[in-house]
Amino acid sequence: MTSAPTMIPPNSSASSSPAGAPAWTPDQPLIRIRDVHKAFGPTVVLGGVTFDVMKGEVICLIGPSGAGKSTLLRCVNALVPIDRGSILVENQEVHDPKLDKLALRRKVGMVFQQYNLFPHRTALQNIMMAPIHVLKRERGAVETLARALMRKVRLEGKEDFYPGELSGGQQQRVAIARSLAMQPDVMLFDEVTAALDPETVKEVLVTIRELVEEGMTCMIVTHEMGFAREVANQIYFTDRGVVVEHGPPAEFFTNSRDPRTRQFLSQIL
Amino acid sequence: MIATRDGALPVLKPFRLGGGSAPRPFRLKARHGVLIALALCLAIGIGDARAGPAAPSILATLLKWTPLLAQGFALDVAMSFLAMGIGTLAGVAVGLWLISLRAPVRGFAWVVTQIFRNAPWLVLLFYCMLLLPFELHVGGLTIPLPDWLKATFGLALPVMANVAELVRGAIRSIPFGQWEACEALAFTRRQTLWMVILPQCVKRMMPPWMNLYAILVAGMPLTSIVGVSDSMTLVGDILSSEGRNELLVPMYLYLLLWFFVYCYPIARATTALERRFQIR
After folding, report:
1. Does residue B246 carry a pLDDT above 90?
2. Ordered structural domains, chain A, with CATH
């Protein structure tokens, strides 16, 4: 009898999780934020934020401007280093000098308020660049994926347009597709509709809602309260760098207890 | 209420030093060429009047020497091409060092840029002529370094420093969001620079880069001072061999016209490019 073939686990986790950290399992928080502090000079932006995001969960961060919402998002994919505390993304510590930032960012997609598309490349090329050059995937397969994503964000036919030839809403949807092309485990949305005019806000929100329905884990910073109420599992209200109050939308919008939350909601609703 | 005659209310207009519009860099215009051509015609007329009846006409003399002058001018163009090429390649490298994340590299590049950008071109030219050997020995190979090549290196130095500054400025003018988007997509710094930032810089750098070339061409006669037989040197040779006083002004104006004919299309193209990029 010949020797039995050695079993190799199909999903070798050695590359995805650093040595020492236990492999992440779906019952653990996808993102685990603990007591995160961040200051820019004397200005304290985050003063001890703590919460979890489970896989498939959608959380919305709301609050007055300057509350540290955008900074918190940027801390999650290590665009901004944190001063103190811990952020685990799939059990990988972000607050670690030895962190493989590129490996982290492959798992975390981000969409910006100002779209930040590459103006010298067409919509399709914008989507294809990162999978080809970062993930080193084969061009043909990436192009198929990119065309599928353009269809998904309802921009079929605009593949060869340059960003300057697209409307704000269209550009933002290309930006979402570009981020999705990396097939991230979680998406961060940083006030993605704040730079858009009211009519085009809807088309971008529809795209995000479809993502949510597919089970994408999302952290969304937004001022669109109606949208937040509709898609969020949890709403976090932040003010001056701390989470003041949180809860499921139905509860949050009707029974908020903290006076700061109530004042904010009364101004905005 | 005070209203002007056309009904507009008086408002405080934005104040700019020196009045009018924002300062624009000097650019060659067609009228400059017309002016040079007119001056040349005038000089030829005056020269002919001063010459004796037996002497050949000024125009005929100019045409007689044109082939030789063309040779000298060709050398000017060749040297300017080479200096621009070398200077641009080196300048892009130094420009990237200027934004390096490593402080010593950045500091070194800054010193290099400051020295070669602020030193007078003629001084750099003299240094290169005097400090570079007339031939190089690499292994068993002997590479001759003729004067014109040394002069080209001398002019490539200020070009390098200016291009370095252009590169640095262009990179800094790219919105920060582009860097952020690249970081979020897990691009390395090198990928970000070469695939996203620099391609966008090329367009922005084109007009000032062409402007720099026009300035370099205008500086080519400097090489005649250090003994390269460029067009300027040749004009001197021609004048001394002809030995005719009345030829002096027409000859130099003639050479000036050559330079104008070469530089004017570049200036026009630069302006056209600038205008096109402004609209986008």
Report:
1. no
2. 31-268 (3.40.50.300)
- Report the residue from B187, B191, B199 with minimal CB separation from A120: B199
pLDDT at B134: 83
- Taking residue A170's Cβ as centre, other Cβ atoms within 10 Å add up to 21
Identify which has the larger pLDDT, B6 or B79. B79
Tracing tokens 């080479």 back to the chain, one arrives at B82
Q: Do B200 and A120 touch (CB under 8 A)?
A: yes
- Tell if the CB–CB gap between B184 and A105 is shorter than 8 Å: yes
**B23 lies in a domain?**
no
Residues in B touching A130 (Cβ below 8 Å): 185-187
Selection from B113, B108, B72, B58 nearest residue B253 by Cα: B58
B113 in any annotated domain? yes
* Residues 84-143 (A) with a CB less than 8 A from some CB of B: 101-103, 105-106, 108-110, 112, 114, 116-120, 129-130, 133-134
A95-117 pLDDT tens trace: 888 889 899 999 999 999 999 99
Q: Which residue of A has its CA nearest to B182?
A: A130
Interface residue B184 vs chain A (CB under 8 A)? yes
Q: In this predicted model, what pLDDT tens digit does every residue of B109-142 receive, in sequence order?
A: 999 999 999 999 999 999 988 888 888 888 778 8
Cα diameter, chain B: 89
Domains in chain B, number: 1
Note whether B188 contacts A: Cβ–Cβ < 8 A.
yes
Give the range of the structural domain holding residue B172, as residue numbers without chain letter.
30-279
For residue B259, name the pLDDT band (cuts at 50, 70, 90): very high
What DSSP state is assigned to residue B245?
G
Q: How many contacts, defined by CB atoms under 8 Å, are there between A and B?
A: 56
Q: What is the pTM of this model?
A: 0.80
Tell me the C-alpha distance between B21 and B13, whole Å: 12
Confidence of residue B184 (pLDDT cuts 50, 70, 90): very high
Q: Is the pLDDT of residue B3 over 60?
A: no
CA distance, residue B235 to nearest chain A CA (Å)? 48
For residue A5, name the pLDDT band (cuts at 50, 70, 90).
very low
Which is nearest to B223 in space by CA: B77, B115, B119?
Answer: B77
